[in-house]
């Protein structure tokens, strides 16, 4: 998935077009180093052609000591729930590696149980992707004055960014869409976990139903998805006439509903959350609400230079609803 907005040209884009390293590109654009005059001129010409402008935020980070971003990784034992979280975290790490490389930074991975490594790593900024992880590393970074970037978490007294990934807004928009289509009893499928993302989704659903004096119908799916079919039936037996799948299993739920005769393909009776590949939802004509946690890393580089004072700046990532096709 990509957002509608056009991605800004990065230092890496210029380097790739010019056929040189990002280090050489940085030297050319900042009139440093021992590059040959013709190489320096060629790089500057490519930068002008692409419309590259220096990233002030990245430049501010380069005033630090190490040109390194710390990424907090959970080292808890693996189970079904941990595996699903690990997959999301891997996508976030990959996004951070790409964004960091584009801005000339390296990534240092820190286990969440080792706050002592913050001092040894001498990172310029700490990226905390999952609020469910142990926060010892985060607290150590705050104590040492290291700027912190955190997803869906506000760290009072810390310089940095609080990046809201949009789950709350996405839930409310999806429920409003189903209600506008005539749904009276909207059921929620959510992961059975204490992960903040799922708590955000369920809290938004409960608040939405309370404001509208609707009876909430919630079914929780186990991490291994062994109870998915049973929980779908639970919602239907409880009288749900529409389902919002916050657990992202839209295609499988749709096929189950269609098999029971409870869904007419062109009816809007199912909306699914989507954070990765929307292709199958698109092929089935499922309306899905897309959030973009993978944009957090690039947002960090684009906005960190705006941070000042001792409180984090709050940034909202984009999200959108993709309407399913009425014909298949």
From TrEMBL:
It comes from the Bacteria. SUPFAM superfamilies: lambda repressor-like DNA-binding domains, Periplasmic binding protein-like I. The keyword Chloroplast does not apply. Residues 9-63 form the HTH lacI-type domain. Keywords: DNA-binding, Transcription, Transcription regulation. Coiled coil: none annotated. PROSITE patterns: HTH_LACI_2. CDD domains: HTH_LacI (cd01392). SMART domains: HTH_LACI. InterPro entries: HTH_LacI (IPR000843), Lambda_DNA-bd_dom_sf (IPR010982), Peripla_BP_I (IPR028082). PANTHER family: LACI-RELATED TRANSCRIPTIONAL REPRESSOR, LACTOSE OPERON REPRESSOR. This is LacI family transcriptional regulator. It comes from Microbacterium memoriense. The lineage of its organism: Bacteria, Bacillati, Actinomycetota, Actinomycetes, Micrococcales.
């Amino acid at each position: 998935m990509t957002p509608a907005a056009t991605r800004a040209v990065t230092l890496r884009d210029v380097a790739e077009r010019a056929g040189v390293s990002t280090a050489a590109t940085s030297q050319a654009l900042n009139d440093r180093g021992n590059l040959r005059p013709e190489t320096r001129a060629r790089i500057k010409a490519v930068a002008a052609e692409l419309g590259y402008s220096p990233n002030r935020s990245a430049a501010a980070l380069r005033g630090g000591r190490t040109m390194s971003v710390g990424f907090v990784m959970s080292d808890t034992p693996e189970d079904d729930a941990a595996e699903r979280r690990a997959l999301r975290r891997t996508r976030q790490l990959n996004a951070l590696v790409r964004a960091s490389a584009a801005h000339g930074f390296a990534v240092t991975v820190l286990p969440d149980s080792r706050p002592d490594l913050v001092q040894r790593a001498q990172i310029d900024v700490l990226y905390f992707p999952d609020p469910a992880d142990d926060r010892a590393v985060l607290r150590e970074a705050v104590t040492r004055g290291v700027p912190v970037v955190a997803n869906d978490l506000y760290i009072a007294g810390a310089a940095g960014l609080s990046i809201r990934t949009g789950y709350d807004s996405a839930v409310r928009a999806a429920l409003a869409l189903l209600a506008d289509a005539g749904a009276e009893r909207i059921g929620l499928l959510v992961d059975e976990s204490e992960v903040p993302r799922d708590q955000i989704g369920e809290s938004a659903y409960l608040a939405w139903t309370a404001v509208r004096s609707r009876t909430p119908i919630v079914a929780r799916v186990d991490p291994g998805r062994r109870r998915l079919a049973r929980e779908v039936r639970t919602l239907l037996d409880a009288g749900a006439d529409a389902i919002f799948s916050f657990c992202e299993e839209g295609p499988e739920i749709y096929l189950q509903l269609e098999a029971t005769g409870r869904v007419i393909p062109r009816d809007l009776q199912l909306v699914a959350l989507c954070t990765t590949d929307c292709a199958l939802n698109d092929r089935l004509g499922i309306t899905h609400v897309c959030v973009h946690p993978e944009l957090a890393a690039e947002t960090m580089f684009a906005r960190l230079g705006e941070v000042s004072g001792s409180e984090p700046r709050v940034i909202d990532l984009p999200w959108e609803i993709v309407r399913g096709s009425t014909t298949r």
